[in-house]
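Hey everyone, long-time lurker, first post.

I ran two proteins through the pipeline my lab uses and got sequence/structure pairs for each. Pasting them in order. The first:
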Amino acid sequence: MTNPNMANREVCDLLFVDYATKKPFLNLDFANVSTTELTGESVFAHGGKGHSKRVQFSGERGGTITIETQIQTVKLWQLITGGEISRSAKFVTRMETSVDDAGTVITLPDAPAADSVVVYKADDDCGAELACTVADKVITLTSALTGGDAVIVYYMKEVNEGVQRINIKSTSFPKNFIVYGDTVMKTEDDEAVPLKLTAYKCAPQSNMSLSFSNNGDPGSLTITADLMADQDNNILDLTLIEE
């Protein structure tokens, strides 16, 4: 690298490694912005007339890594929240259908959870509940409607295939991680110089905001991790590689 003057206009790809097990947890190579900030506290001894600053002390070294991404994964949500991933889920389903020709029978595509079925007339959604009994996938109304009448059915559906559910409890907290970063700096001589970042111990903050909108830019997620010192007092490495 003949010219030490550099600039950056590229995001940092980040690999999160579990601090305890030293095994890779998440390859985050889809961020839009990654920012590393170092912080510290300065306190001063004062003395003399005017209470001027005479001696400076530095301490409380730390910082943050902040990532902004429009691409999201369940594994990323797990990294932020510390929640557990499950392969089954239950959720309420709304179905618009109609009764049979006799006006009493409704057939569901799958068996609902026990005591979860609620039926309304189509023109009285969430209004007066229609009394019924349920056997497997078949609902039988106590009082018959006109054959073919439209109805709305709410029921609890359980899914055990093709599901990723993250369960976040009041006792869920994120793990600590080692973070390895990779980006490129550009010199005034038009050289591309790889920059490697190592954060020796960081703890993701548990704040997460998921936005869902039908206009504007795609929703963005911001992850902030606090930098800490490891057992050897290491906080951060910034390494330039001359090629």
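...and the second, right after it:
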Amino acid sequence: MALNYFKRYRMELDLAGRDLTWAKIPKGYRFLPWHSSLLDAHAEAKFLSFREEIDANVFPCFNDLAGCRRLMAEISRKPGFLPEATWLAVAVGEDGKPVETCGTVQGVRDRFGLGAIQNLGITPPHRGRGLGTVLLFRALSGFWQVGLRRVYLEVTADNLGAVRLYRRHGFHVMKTLFKAAEAACS
């Protein structure tokens, strides 16, 4: 079994004194707060966001919808799961009703009382429209709402778009980690 090592950053943000006013929602989109009935929609958004990205090599569950559903179910059952920091982005039709999932983020309180952002992803056709920023700010506001003042996340260093997003909004690299993953069979 061959292993690949992926460079990842642990990035952190102090929420104290930050303007957490929700970013402007682009026209044609809605953001839905967590509800258990949305578990499958979160899983679909996660799958469509990560399946063809480097993180699918780091976390094999992103390679199939069933794996994303299991992951979403596990996250939502964690003792520290925060519905307030968990959001779904959807594209809406002319009538304002959801027609397509296009982004997801989950938040948990870790065992040390810090907020942890999990799997912020935007599906490829919807990138570059500010949806990631809106999801990030919704999650950060949720952490603040429940009294958490420090938030972290892990991101694969080669995911340049995500690293830029987090840096642009004040996250700093605190640690570099290496995640081992089995190499894909040829």
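Reply from user beta_strand_b:
Welcome! Quick read of the second one: The chain has one domain: 3-181. The chain has five helices and seven strands.
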